[in-house]
Amino acid sequence: MTRAADIFREGALDGAAVFVTGAGTGIGRAIAERLARLGAVVGGCGRRAEPLDQTASAVAAAGGRFVPIPCDVRDADAARTALAEFASRHGLTGLVNNAGGQFYAAAEDIRPRGWQAVIDLNLTAVFHLCQAARPLFRGGGSILSISLTGAERGALGMAHSVAARSGVAGLTKALALEWAADDIRVNCIAPGTVATPAFQANSTPELRDRLRRETPIRRLVEPAEVAEFVAFLLSPAAGMITGQILRVDGGSFLAAPVDMRPAGLGKEAA
Ligand SMILES: CCCCC/C=C/C(=O)SCCNC(=O)CCNC(=O)[C@H](O)C(C)(C)COP(=O)(O)OP(=O)(O)OC[C@H]1O[C@@H](n2cnc3c(N)ncnc32)[C@H](O)[C@@H]1OP(=O)(O)O
Ligand SMILES: NC(=O)C1=CN([C@@H]2O[C@H](COP(=O)(O)OP(=O)(O)OC[C@H]3O[C@@H](n4cnc5c(N)ncnc54)[C@H](OP(=O)(O)O)[C@@H]3O)[C@@H](O)[C@H]2O)C=CC1
């Protein structure tokens, strides 16, 4: 069976202009490439120019349009400027808050700067970009934030990230209500484990095997499966979907969380 669904017709997103954060690598790159193949012009940011240029080359090779705009989303002014620059040239119909991440640590080992770094990246930057996007949407828009499955259930070794993602879940619902009258939809996608290079670099084969076994559908999520869902939620087909936390996790929300604390990485949760 083909795992990475590829269900949309060519040109399904013609006329769309979507800004994707963290578009140089992993899930963000998969999203950027897919949206561009469907006809959207995609603006992508990240701190490093080189990965963005690689996404630009891949998109161009497939005949699409990708505008690399390096910036740090934790710098609110720089992020606003990057988004406004893209929107002034191409318009804006969608925003995908994908840049994010964390380190794994027991709650008692998270120091103030580590806490702040994760909250700034995974929550505060998302708020600033949503706020910046609002006046740039003309005639409606769609905002998606990439979160993490299980945030609302809790997780071991990720207290800072779970707190930030829970904040994003609340923000998603609040903005969905406030902006619905302007046809701005706001949703959150919560993936299970995705075997991106970044995740591989921060995990052992044993841990990945365990995460696979603990996922009711016995495999990890593919970036293309997140990207396809993003395309759907940005499209008019999802016109009545807003304020939702939508999991792409093979059912792992229903299973016991894996202990991500360094001392017990990959072991059974107690
Ligand atoms: C079932 C679970 C599945 C999990 C699935 C999720 C997977 C993913 O999300 S993977 C894809 C995302 N990629 C990453 O998470 C990797 C990138 N991570 C980071 O870049 C950092 O963790 C960051 C988000 C905190 C980035 O912050 P930045 O400001 O760039 O980082 P600094 O190096 O300056 O550190 C700031 C602060 O944080 C402390 N810190 C960093 N690592 C640790 C650690 N392992 N333990 C404790 N504290 C840590 C660092 O020490 C700094 O504080 P001070 O030392 O006090 O200055
Ligand atoms: N992989 C997984 O298993 C899962 C991932 N997720 C989430 O999905 C998202 C993407 O993850 P994934 O593709 O695996 O990870 P990556 O680390 O590959 O992607 C993160 C991207 O965000 C960019 N980024 C990080 N910090 C900043 C910043 N301050 N400003 C601008 N860009 C930034 C990075 O580029 P640069 O370094 O150049 O800035 C990078 O391209 C993250 O939010 C992650 O937490 C959720 C569930 C599971």
Mind explaining what this structure looks like?
By secondary structure, this protein is α/β, with parallel strands linked by helices. The chain has one domain: 3-Layer(aba) Sandwich (Rossmann fold). It is 41% helix and 13% strand. It is built from eight helices and seven strands, in the order βαβαβαβαβαβαααβ. It has helices at residues 26-37, 49-61, 76-90, 112-133, 159-179, 197-201, 205-214, 223-234; strands at residues 17-21, 41-45, 65-68, 94-97, 141-146, 184-191, 245-248. The protein has a seven-stranded parallel sheet with strand order 3-2-1-4-5-6-7, sandwiched between helices. Strand 2, helix 2 and strand 3 (65-68) form a beta-alpha-beta unit. Helix 1 crosses helix 8 (223-234). It is globular. The model has no long low-confidence stretch (mean pLDDT 95).
Pick out its properties.
single chain, 270 residues, alpha/beta, Rossmann fold, seven-stranded parallel β-sheet, 8 helices, 7 strands, 41% helix, globular, binds ligand LGGBLMCM, binds NADPH dihydro-nicotinamide-adenine-dinucleotide phosphate, Peroxisomal_t2-enoyl-CoA_red, oxidoreductase, lipid metabolism, trans-2-enoyl-CoA reductase (NADPH) activity, SDR_fam
